[in-house]
Amino acid sequence: MSEMEWENLLSPKRFGAEDLLDQGEPGRSSFHRDCDRIIFSSSFRRLGKKTQVHPLALNDHVHTRLTHSIEVASVGRSLGIRCGEEIQDKLPSGIHPTHVGQILQAACLSHDIGNPPFGHAGEEAIKSWFSHPSNAHILEGLSNRHQDDFKNFEGNAQGFRLLTRLEYNINGGGMRLTYATLASMLKYPWTSMEIKKIKKFCCFQSEIDFLDQIANEVKLIKDDDHLYKRHPLAFLAEAADDICYRILDLEDAHEMKILSFHEIKEILEGLCKKNDHYKEIIDSNQVSNRRKLSFIRAKAIGQAIEGVITSFVKNYDKIMNGVFKKDLISECDSQIRKPLNLAKEMAKEKVFNEPRKIELEIGCYTAIGILLDAFCSAVREQVISGENITYKSSRVLAMMGLNAPKKGDDLYQSFLKVTDYISGMTDNYASHMAKQIGGMGN
Prior knowledge:
It contains 20 helices and two strands.
């Protein structure tokens, strides 16, 4: 198996605009421009009203998908620059560690951009609705491959679809990001056909040619048809996400009064160097617990970054040869790995099972179900029967505006337009829309 090469992996060529030479501009590289295109997109903006962990939280200090994505991008940029410095002698001419940081920043900014409302519960609600036997008639006539895209709906794949097709240049390259950035955000560079072996995937059947095109441009190692080894920087993007959610989920839990300061301190201080300054802050009666946690969090993230850099360098040859099959945190020193794993377990046991969170997640199943039932039924009616659809269906389709399917359209593509529409909703809008359609609105 041949080794991947940075000359290919860091391609600045733009997807969908391959004939246009993009050399950036003074003070702003091609990869920096990727970051700006993502930040100024409407899809990124809507993350400000989408759930990270706690649906429809009333506490303004709790993370949304937007604040989470910005923080992950900050950690990703640091990891990219530091790891770029470690392998600087292997980078192609004209590529600096800062550029590697910018690629990671862009990949991390976009890592949750396709997530539906209500966080992971929203993903599960979409999967559940399409998989339920009572809704089998909706997907009737679609191939098994196409049905799998809906029955295993994946926010990662929706994000890839959004970046390459839906945002800015519709069906013309989407955001037209660099190949390096797109390949780095592909955490799972394969399709839903692998779902029986691997739980996650990054590409619907509708973008399968895009996946192949990107993989071929940066020369990812190919395992099988439409199945590739990860881009090396995808491991760092994954680590940035893992560091942030494991540590910051606990901080959010303190804001929500689910976990005490001392419960969190006991876990996270294992990642902190307890020097005199640390003790002065933590022991002070003049510093609030919120500020103490912020201090601990900053120290913990800094140490976790150092651990991941060491892990990347240690496993560099395996990563470049496509034989590294773990995540970087699992290969960190135990002083880094153990506290991060404990944080993950505590969140799983105490945060994700908090009663109010469970209640809202159950409610999100109802909201998503109402929306999918209305829109999918209307779309199927319109595509198959055309002119003689019910008044209700015609009004539902009117909500989709120019994206509403027409008689004779491809049914698979028509349902994709529904999941595009619903997954793009914010938590508040999805709740409002479900109430209106369900006859519960004001």
